[in-house]
């Protein structure tokens, strides 16, 4: 019969000859292994080791726990500790992994900052020790491996491809400056999730390996990678792809092909006009697209007929690039959620009334505009007219008006009423950030008075607009509508600082606009 550890304590009541016996039972030791392991998964490594010293049974728990997380931040005094002190900690982790023998690991996470980042004269060979821990994790048939290592050395660490050959590995995340070579193309992998950050990939064969050998991969993330210019991913299982490499060399050629690809996030950019970059996309079942940064010099996205959500934050440097963006918008006829950031909205509305071939099914629209200026209103009306299904509207605007000379008080609520916008009958949720002038207030008044199905409207305004907001609050509205007013102290045209600061801000804004509008062909750039 298994012995149950008990702690006996006896107490007596004064004045009474009665002895009460209290029995305290070690409940943790009697828990089934799966439940105890689940509890240990929420405890950091330092406390797991401490619990393991309390009893033989708890030691079994801490040696067999399927989740190990070693976070350098748990030991804040190690930053400037002597090498001998850090060596003791590393030896403890060595022993812990060695005593596990072949007990399987579900998840192994390491966050480590090398000693030479804080101490100049350091003889620690910590990179080698970290690699031995990874080998031990692979030996224990780890399923999820997360390496977050801050490498502080001129020569990146060479990371062996042995991890990719681990049959049990399902998820791998590497966040460290290291050199990664492709595994053999005749190997196979059971990886479902791969995330690489600040990794140098020395040859394009690595992406060939992903395409040919990772038959189960569903999520792929490439963040700030370098060393390679041509990236080709062809996968029949990939469902989500993130490519966030704004600093990648100008010659980036990105080719993506995936019939099951549903989510794509691209963030790429270069300050100079680039002729050599390209994007080729084949994703007939894509449902979500986030694209920010810069356009490629050439892009072919095909027809995105299944796309439901699109968020675009692209720099528009010329009329030609606007045509490309408009073509991209027209390639997504079924989009239901559309988020347009400032650069695209600015270019889209300044072109004047344009055909809205991509708007028919949109029910959520978020736009960032500088301000509701008079010269933008006709184009905005045309834009709204193509959205009969719109039920959620979010209009963002700049806190500070850099163009106080622009008129923004020429259109009242009667003008908006005369446009007979179809979406007003379906509008339920509205959020408007008011810029200077009365155009935004009049649009809000029109919505309040005519959106009979309105459920909630939030209006962000400047201190200068408080009086107008008070009158707006008296407008008739839908019986069940909730209206929230929020005063933004930083919003408006009021000069809270020296005039020289605001003049400099406007000059800087115009300088940036002129830089993005440069045609580098005139300056001899290839």
TrEMBL record:
F-box domain sequence ranges: 25-75
Gene3D superfamilies found in the cross-reference section: 1.20.1280.50, Ribonuclease Inhibitor (3.80.10.10)
InterPro entries from the UniProt entry: F-box-like_dom_sf, F-box_dom, FBL13/AtMIF1-like, LRR_At1g61320_AtMIF1, LRR_dom_sf, LRR_FXL15/At3g58940/PEG3-like
Top-level taxonomic group: Eukaryota
Name this polypeptide is given: F-box domain-containing protein
Organism: Prunus dulcis (Almond)
Lineage of producing organism: Eukaryota, Viridiplantae, Streptophyta, Embryophyta, Tracheophyta
């Amino acid at each position: 019969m298994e012995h149950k550890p008990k702690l006996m304590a006896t107490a007596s009541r004064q004045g009474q000859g009665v002895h009460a016996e209290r029995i305290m039972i070690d409940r943790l030791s009697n828990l089934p292994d799966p439940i105890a392991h689940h509890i240990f998964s929420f405890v950091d490594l330092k406390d797991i080791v401490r619990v393991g010293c309390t009893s033989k049974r708890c030691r079994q728990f801490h040696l067999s726990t399927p989740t190990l997380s070693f976070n350098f931040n748990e030991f804040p005094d190690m930053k400037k500790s002597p090498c001998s002190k850090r060596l003791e900690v590393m030896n403890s982790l060595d022993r812990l992994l060695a005593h596990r023998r072949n007990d399987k690991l579900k998840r192994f996470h390491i966050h480590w900052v090398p000693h030479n980042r804080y101490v100049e004269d350091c003889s620690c060979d910590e990179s080698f020790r970290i690699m031995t821990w990874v080998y031990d994790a692979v030996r224990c048939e780890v399923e999820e491996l997360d390496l977050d290592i801050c490498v502080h050395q001129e020569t990146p660490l060479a990371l062996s491809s042995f991890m990719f050959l681990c049959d049990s590995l399902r998820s791998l995340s590497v966040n460290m400056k290291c050199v990664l070579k492709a595994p053999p193309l005749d190997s196979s992998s059971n990886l479902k999730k791969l995330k690489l950050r600040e990794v140098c990939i020395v040859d394009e064969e690595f992406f060939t390996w992903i395409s040919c050998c990772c038959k189960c991969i569903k999520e792929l993330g490439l963040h700030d990678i370098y060393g390679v210019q041509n990236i080709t991913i062809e996968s029949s299982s990939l469902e989500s792809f993130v490519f966030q490499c704004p600093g990648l060399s100008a010659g980036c050629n990105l080719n993506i092909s995936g019939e099951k690809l549903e989510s794509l996030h691209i963030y790429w950019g270069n300050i100079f006009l680039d002729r050599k970059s390209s994007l080729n996309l084949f994703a007939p079942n894509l449902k979500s697209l986030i694209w920010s940064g810069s356009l490629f010099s050439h892009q072919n996205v095909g027809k995105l007929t299944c796309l439901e959500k699109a968020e675009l934050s692209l720099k528009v440097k010329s009329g030609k690039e606007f045509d490309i963006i408009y073509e991209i918008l027209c390639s997504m006829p079924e989009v239901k959620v559309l988020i347009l950031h400032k650069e695209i909205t600015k270019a889209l509305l300044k072109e004047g009334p344009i055909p809205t071939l991509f708007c028919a099914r949109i029910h959520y629209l978020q736009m960032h505009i500088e301000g509701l200026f008079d010269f933008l209103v006709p184009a905005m009306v045309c834009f709204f007219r193509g959205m009969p299904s719109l039920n959620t509207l979010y209009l963002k605007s700049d806190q500070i008006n850099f163009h106080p000379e622009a008129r923004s008080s020429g259109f009242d609520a009667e003008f908006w009423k005369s446009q007979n916008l179809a979406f007003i009958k379906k509008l339920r949720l509205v959020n408007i950030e008011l810029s200077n002038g009365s155009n935004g207030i009049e649009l809000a008044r029109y919505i309040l008075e005519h959106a009979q199905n309105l459920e909630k409207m939030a209006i962000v305004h400047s201190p200068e607009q408080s009086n107008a907001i008070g009158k707006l609050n008296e407008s008739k509205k839908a019986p069940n509508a909730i209206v929230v007013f929020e005063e933004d102290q930083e919003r408006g045209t009021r000069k809270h600082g020296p005039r020289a600061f605001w003049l400099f801000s406007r000059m800087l804004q115009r300088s940036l606009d002129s830089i993005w509008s440069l045609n580098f062909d005139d300056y001899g750039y290839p």
